[in-house]
Amino acid sequence: MTDNLQLNAEGKLKHFLTIEGLSQALLTEILDTAESFVGVSDQQIKKVPLLRGKTIVNLFFENSTRTRTTFELAAKRLSADVLSMSIATSSTSKGESLLDTIRNLEAMFVDMFVVRHAISGAAHFIAQHTAPHISVINAGDGQHAHPTQAMLDMFTIRQIKKDFAPLRVAIIGDILHSRVARSQIQALNALGTAEVRVIAPKTLLPAHVETLGVTVSHNLTEGLQDIDVIIMLRLQKERMTSALLPSESEYFKCFGLTESKLKIAKPDAIVMHPGPINRGVEIESNVADGPQSVILKQVSNGIAVRMAIMSMAMQPHGVS
Amino acid sequence: MMGKIHIRHGRVIDPANEIDRIGSVYIADGKIASVAEEPAGFKADIVIDASNQIVCPGFIDLSVRLREPGHSRKATFKTETRAAASAGVTTMCLQPDTNPVIDTAAVAELIKELAEKANYPQIYPIAALTQKLEGNELSSMLALKEAGCIAVSNANQPIRNLLILRRAMEYAASHDLLLMFRPNDYWLGNNGCAHEGAVATRYGLPSIPDAAETIALDQCLELAELTRCRVHFGQISCKRSVIKIHQANKYGLNVSADVSIHQLHLTENDIKPFDSAYHVLPPFRTEADKQYLRQGLASGTISSICSDHQPHDIDAKLGAFPETDPGVSSLETLLPLMLKLVSQHAITMEQGIAALSEQPARILQLRSGALTPGFPADVCVFDPDMDWQINKQNWHSRGVNTPFWNQTFKGRVTHTLQAGKVIFCVPSYR
């Protein structure tokens, strides 16, 4: 079951919905393209004219500050006209209204939708039903995928570690509910990473997690051995009320990243976090702000990577 | 005044009477007159030539939704009885989750009326086990039985308190009512929409473990022993359910089970990315589960196949997968998918026909499901080799929600008779 929906007849990016089904070559092309955009933010005039005259709508059905801001900045630096909409939805809202929203915006001659939605599959659904000239970028759908976040993480890893082949990467925390983790795992595997290890209690791991192409550990001390890259995930407060965990303090004791735990990993290991951070829950401040942390680098890289993905997805249909 | 009908030259398969031979079926006064000798003085008003076709009892479907009353936007008795007739289905059991729920005699009577109006009288309402299906108070089961309900069920709604389930079963047993039970533990089900396995994990879909089914099944088996209530398990979906039912039967409990036809063909791996046509409950499970369900059918542990027909309007399936309504419009794929099981050597033709006629009749204690002289002349004639495509021209149900859309199948019903009346004749056929 491959996802050809996001590629056009020539195998080029049309939508960006998930990492699944994308080749190593295409992912590398995204990273290389992003590389060329890194300088743009440092210039006096922080703009390139690639998407001049194009209209991009950020459709955020779920709250987000950072992702929306970096998408907005990325679009502006590509010279596109950009409109951001926060659409509050109740969990009972139906596909009809989602489709109606899309149809209405389509009628305003939009070229691209950047979509965040609380339900898995929402971006796929929009891509399937939107007009053929429109590209859809998934900015996070339910527990399914957050592919631009994964790509900016890959970009950050490559900046520092150069090559994926020898790396052992640990992803720690709430894998079950994390769209970021799913996309990271797929990207790391597609890029040829030696090992992707997930570290979490069983309550925060999805069934048959090993089928995603990971090794599994339930113990942080054991799991951090030989690790080059540590990715911490945010722990949502509601995990405690749904009996997945006893308490924040017990979670921190078992899975929180402290300076002493960090020492178990390789000495040059980097620490990443997709944000926002819960200090003292999944990560100690000393580590989050410490020399091995690349958390803020991730944020700045987000703009270049999103510029790359947006420009590539618009390329096949008539950007000169 | 019903006409006399002679169906001739067909391969007559009647599992209940162990008949499988080329011959005739004679019908008079709405009843089977003979499947052997021509009755004395028989003069047919209608002759149906069934050369190269199979003549068998009409199919009895243990679980359908026709969406009336209450959801006529999705489908109506008129459209769905037409679909049933075209599929060789002559008797249907209607799940009680209509609106209003089938928890009063008045609603049961309304359903009988709607059936008469649609010229398809053989629709049996299944009574709600609890009032409004809320799982709190018992429905008036005796009144519902007297109004024509054939069994009791809580449809897909949970009964969270086992004491209430126990009492409902005791009360049903007192009136010799069959409990039709789809096992699903509400809490373990956790509002999921896909099998808890590799595919749900990959797509980040809320998932349902098979233990949600087997734990509820275990509880109901224990209560069946305690209350001596007759229980039929509907729409079994996993391997360990088959094993548990087999063990219960060996132990001497009076329980039976069915499986919905699509569960015998599709698994989690067949789900196209976020395609809501594959959103069903119970969810499509693993290849091993599918194989066990097939074996369970072949060995008789699962005696019947149902369509679990659930037609939907387009909007109900238009959305992100978890937000869409579950269910497949499946009456019209019932026979071709059964025949596919035969061609794949999972079951024999006799077993397949029995699972759609003799066995459900036995579960419902109906005098039908067989070509026994004196039984109502419910007959299905089908061409096992006719190719046809599932498309707009050939489809009758209002619901087009099927994962098999545009696929070509082998085996098509040519004639359907209900109580001696021809209710369907395929247009392209003589």
Structural features, described:
The complex is a heterodimer of chains A (320) and B (430). Chain A is of the alpha/beta class and 320 residues long. Chain A has 2 domains: 4-145 and 300-317, Aspartate/ornithine carbamoyltransferase (Rossmann fold); 147-296, Aspartate/ornithine carbamoyltransferase (Rossmann fold). Chain A is 37% helix and 14% strand. In chain A, the strands form 2 sheets. Chain A has a 5-stranded parallel sheet with strand order 7-6-5-8-9. In chain A, helix 4 links the parallel strand 3 (112-117) and strand 4 (135-141). In chain A, helix 1 crosses helix 5 (147-161), helix 5 packs across helix 6 and helix 5 crosses helix 12. Chain A is globular and about 55 Å long. The two termini of chain A are 33 Å apart. The mean pLDDT of chain A is 91. By secondary structure, chain B is α/β, with parallel strands linked by helices. Chain B has 2 domains: 5-55 and 376-386 and 406-425, Roll (Urease, subunit C, domain 1); 57-364, TIM Barrel (Alpha-Beta Barrel), CATH 3.20.20. Helices cover 28% and strands 23% of the residues of chain B. Chain B is built from 12 helices and 18 strands. Chain B has helices at residues 77-86, 105-117, 141-146, 162-174, 186-189, 198-203, 211-227, 239-251, 287-299, 334-343, 349-356, 358-364; strands at residues 5-14, 19-28, 31-34, 46-49, 54-57, 59-64, 89-94, 123-128, 151-153, 179-181, 194-195, 207-208, 231-233, 255-260, 304-306, 379-389, 408-418, 421-425. In chain B, the strands form 3 sheets. In chain B, strands 1, 2, 3, 4, 5, 16, 17 and 18 form an 8-stranded mixed sheet that branches. In chain B, strand 13 (231-233), helix 8 and strand 14 (255-260) form a beta-alpha-beta unit. The longest helix of chain B has 17 residues, at 211-227. The mean pLDDT of chain B is 96. Chain A binds chain B through residues 1, 3, 5, 20, 94-96, 98-99, 117, 119-122, 124-125, 129, 141-145, 179, 182, 206-209, 211-212, and chain B through 196-198, 200-207, 209, 269, 271-274, 315, 318-324.
